[in-house]
Amino acid sequence: MDVYTEITDNLAQVRERIAAAARSAGRDPDEITLVAVTKTHPVEVIEAACRAGLRDLGENRVEEASEKIPAARERLAPGERPRWHMIGHLQRRKARQAVTLFDTIHSVDSLRLARRIDRFAQEQGKIVSVLLEVNVSGEASKHGFDMSGGTDAQARSAFWGDVERILDLPHVRVDGLMTMAPIVMQAEQARPVFAALRVLRDDLRRRFPQTDWRELSMGMTDDFQVAIQEGATMVRVGRAIFGSRRG
User: Going by C-beta distance under 8 Å and a sequence separation of 6 or more, which residues neighbour residue 207?
Assistant: First the structure.
């Protein structure tokens, strides 16, 4: 089976799973954006994915993306070119490259990073769509603003203050939140994490109504159906579409 056929077949199955999960929650499947994660996959796979109809692709590392994104733009017709999402941890020293390469940055995990993105976006004459990455599971290995269940009132107040300052940045547009769920044996075990992010988003909507907070980026290959049931508007799926990662 060639790469294009394999991706097309897998994509049809993933989209049906997305639709079924949305319908089970009384949602419109069109509300969910599928971000296909192309980490470690070569430009040939990206080209096949775009020709199969994928229009939102995600990369985890700036270094890898800096080679693949320009190459993909050269190989694809304008109507086939995807929107690029930075979904991995972003170091502040790589913020300028990220602003150049990506349409949306999912992993803004501090006020300092947001300010750097804003500065580089101003230099490039653009406004960058970002999501605030939040650690709601409490895992020390996870990046993001710490809003886990044990967070004290002082930490929560600091988070509200950081959010207010980020919303004031003129070249950054906050479109919502992102989280990484723990690796679990059963997808159902991740549900409390996804529900907590949705509750936090609803709280932010009340506190900062100047932003609609429309996006919830949560859920990956093993748990995206549960994430959709809990309100995900973006799911980040790689293995179910492309198979095991290369390299």
Answer: 160, 163
- Name the residue with tokens 């940045």: 169
Give yes or no for a contact between 124 and 118, defined as CB atoms under 8 angstroms apart: no
Q: How many Cβ atoms from other residues are within 10 Å of residue 234's Cβ?
A: 25
Backbone angles phi, psi at 172, to 5 degrees: -125, 130
CATH superfamily, domain at 3-242: Alanine racemase (3.20.20.10)
Cα 148 off chain centre by: 19
pLDDT at 245: 60
Q: Which tokens is 123 given?
A: 């230099």
Q: What is the pTM of this model?
A: 0.94
| H-helix or E-strand spanning residue 13 | helix 3-24
* SS3 of the chain: helix, strand, coil, percent, to 5: 50, 15, 35
Tokens of 127: 């406004």
CA-CA distance, 95 to 101, in Å (whole number)?
A: 10
C-alpha 8/C-alpha 242 separation (Å) is 10
**Residue of 19, 15, 40, 41 lying closest to 28 (CA atoms):** 19
Summarize pLDDT for 27-70 with one digit per residue, the tens.
Answer: 999 999 999 999 999 999 999 999 999 999 999 999 999 999 99
User: What are residue 156's phi and psi, to 5 degrees?
Assistant: -65, -40
CA angle, corner 20, sides to 218 and 5, nearest 5? 85
